[in-house]
Specification:
This protein is an alpha/beta fold. The chain folds into two domains: about 130 residues, Aspartate Aminotransferase, domain 1; about 250 residues, Type I PLP-dependent aspartate aminotransferase-like (Major domain) (Aspartate Aminotransferase, domain 2), CATH 3.40.640.10. Helices cover about 40% and strands about 15% of the residues. The protein contains twelve helices and 13 strands. The chain has a seven-stranded mixed β-sheet with strand order 2-8-7-6-5-3-4, with helices on both faces. Helix 7 links the parallel strand 6 and strand 7. Helix 3 packs parallel to helix 4 and helix 9 packs parallel to helix 12. About 50% of the residues are buried.
């Protein structure tokens, strides 16, 4: 593991900051009790950490009420709750070809059940969705638009403010999947017109796996779809409508929240802009070098503007999976190959028939040496058949 060059940060950032590991261990050892259920000191102190984490994330997204910041297992979990809780029979939903299966599959199941109708808007040759195409897809029964802020395949960052403005003008709810952007790209829900946001903790927020959540703005209609214990008002037969209980039930992933707490603090201390600058500079050098290698095709990697550090490519003459295996076995480089849980992106890229592409994604702990190693590996692999 010590020799591994890790370039799969879009799947999950690795390693985590030492502060995250240390806080998770110390907090769980000393405060691993159930928050919000009891009145003894340890439970109260545990609840204070949970509340402070809600507050930090609410501020990060420019929300108003920390109680409306709810925790879940991950972004997929929250997206399921939002999409099921915000749609009704007869609704029309607009989404895009850029989406991850965490959006595509819940929508598809709702469509199969006869609850909703879905329109998928295309992205252009550079990897961006035109807000006007979103507007053109509206129907009389359009209930909401859902889009990911940044693609997990090609890294393009979408114009949320422009799309949010169109949604507000037409009375359409705007939901955003921030899995690849929360903690990396500033998100201002008010300025961008976002009604509900799903996030995950284990990527740019530098927390562990198994923790995520959502923020729902005041007045946005979302019904609860899960019911159970809340720790308060136990005699009430129905699940509580007040936030955060509406979208939370049962005992939370406390150690996950603790790790997220430390991860957010680390990101804020380092500065999102500083981290992004460092990562995109490495990405740009990797991009430029890869594009100079004969036999390599990159996808939607134009420049550093509105871009996250994710490079998608193929080596002519090779299956993506074979390239990934050589990167791992021969060069000790971890990357991701295939369709990346985003099949519609690959439909438009034209890579479905060749089983997807190779994805190299950069994180805050990558170095110039890591990029040098990846470039040399790509050169060696490409030279075999080109």
């Amino acid at each position: 593991m010590s020799q591994l060059t890790y370039l799969d940060n879009s799947a999950t950032t690795f390693p985590k900051p030492e502060e995250v590991y240390a806080f998770m261990d110390s907090f769980y050892r000393n405060h691993g009790v159930n928050p919000g259920r009891s009145g003894f000191d340890a439970a109260i102190e545990t609840e204070e950490m949970v509340t402070e984490t809600r507050r930090m994330l609410t501020n990060l997204f420019n929300g108003d009420d920390p109680d409306r910041l709810t925790f879940s297992y991950n972004a997929s979990d929250s997206l399921n709750m939002l999409l099921q809780g915000m749609t009704e029979k007869g609704d029309h939903v607009v989404t895009t070809m850029l989406e991850h299966n965490s959006v595509l599959r819940p929508l598809h199941h709702l469509e199969l059940d006869g609850t909703i109708e879905v329109t998928h808007v295309h992205f252009d040759s550079h990897g961006y969705v035109d807000p006007d195409d979103i507007k053109k897809a509206f129907k009389k029964n359009t209930k909401l638009v859902i889009i990911n802020h940044s693609s997990n395949v090609i890294g393009t960052i979408q114009p949320l403010k422009e799309i949010g403005k169109i949604c507000k003008e037409h009375g359409v709810l705007f939901v955003v999947d921030s899995s690849q952007s929360a903690g990396a790209i500033p998100i201002d829900m008010k300025d961008m017109g976002i009604d509900a946001l799903a996030f995950t903790g284990h990527k740019c927020l530098m927390g562990p796996t198994g923790i995520g959540g959502s923020y729902v703005m005041e007045g946005v209609p979302v019904k609860g779809t899960r019911f159970g214990g809340t720790g308060v008002r136990s005699a009430v037969k129905t699940h509580l409508e007040a936030f955060p209980y509406r979208l939370e039930c049962g005992t939370m992933n406390l150690v996950g929240v603790a790790g997220l707490h430390a991860g957010v603090k680390w990101v804020l201390d380092k500065g999102m802009a500083n981290l992004h600058k460092q990562e995109i500079e490495l990405w740009d050098r990797l991009r430029r070098s890869a594009q100079e290698i004969p036999g390599i095709t990159t996808y939607c990697a134009e420049n550093t503007e509105n871009q996250n550090p994710v490079l998608c490519l193929n080596v002519n003459g090779f299956e993506a999976g074979d390239v990934g295996m050589m990167m791992d076995v021969d060069f000790d480089i971890a990357c991701r190959t295939g369709l990346h849980c985003a099949p519609k992106v690959h439909e438009l890229l034209g890579t479905v028939d060749i089983h997807g592409a190779v994805r190299l994604s950069i994180g805050p702990f990558n170095t110039d040496e890591n990029i040098d190693k990846a470039i040399e590996a790509l050169k060696d692999i490409a030279s075999i058949k080109n």
